[in-house]
Amino acid sequence: MRKPIVTFMIAIAAIAFLTLYRLDYYIVKPGHAYDVSEFIDSEQLYAHEGTLNLMTVAMQVATPLSYALSWFDTSSDIAKKTDVRRQDESDKEYEIRQEKQMADSQFNAKYVAYQKLGLKTKVQFEGLYIVHVVPKGAAEKYLQAGDEVIAVDGKEVTSLDSFSKTIASKKENENVALTFIRQGKEHKVTIALKPIPNDAKGRTGLGVAYNAAQTIITEPAIELEASDIGGPSAGLMFTLGIMNALSEEDLTKGYDVAGSGTMNLDGTVGAIGEIGKKVIAAHRDGMAYFFALATPLDDAYKKSFPDAQTNYEEAQAMAQTIGTKMEIVPVSSIDDALAFLAQLPPK
Fold this sequence. Notes:
- The protein is of the alpha+beta class.
- The protein is built from ten helices and 18 strands.
- The chain folds into two domains: 241 residues, Ribosomal Protein S5, domain 2 (2-Layer Sandwich), CATH 3.30.230; 92 residues, Pdz3 Domain.
- It is 33% helix and 29% strand.
- Pfam families: Lon_C (PF05362), PDZ_2 (PF13180).
């Protein structure tokens, strides 16, 4: 009787190891197309026949079993943890960085869309947003990713530049007083500055990475709710989606349009990763057109990475591989995307 029990326990342990043990790899698969209009809420919205879709990839931490199975899935890739995460970045910091990138993407999309439509916006700087705390740095025991610093030495933080200059003006062991918001509550702390661990320039400081915390007030008011999606790559499609939602004319002419690319405040589109996976997902979900960044790579980058391709070239290659009828459309700016949509015949 004892032997079957031991065998059973060994089997349970083996199954648990194969399915639960977390490897330092990620499995990356095609995700899905999501109609941007589903994320938009405003009192002034127009419904249209066509759709503008952001694209996702599915990413999960690999286990021994999923790692092995991924070798038999031609649409999956294996990525090292170091290719996805920053050095010393915790699970929480990675999640917060993804959320912050999405928030910034939505901010830029609102700004550009309203500028193109000639509508009013007002930008408010709120402070700075902590995205990473360096282990063994001065701020390790006091700050954490997600904190919003609103004052330094009793003075309101009015820009990233003013904050960095205040910190840079101080010496090792000199104190800095910070006021910050964490989970809706205000906190105050005094931190003695010290050398930043592993800093190539040997600087003294708090040992934190941060971005601007800012809000945009629009007229008419509009909200984007996409809390389950992270990263900056939906910027282009958010911008187009907002414009379409606030326009009586259907920019899509009735077609299902997808794409991927970040949106800069000047209206230019930025590169994103895993565009091949997004092309596969768009094809599977029946998209007619797919926007991809075609801005040429600069010479310095091509010299360092001779085999590098633009997002458009990568997307074209994948489209040919899977034999899709979906058209890959090269763009470098929001204006390029709008010009393409404008010349489409009604469906």
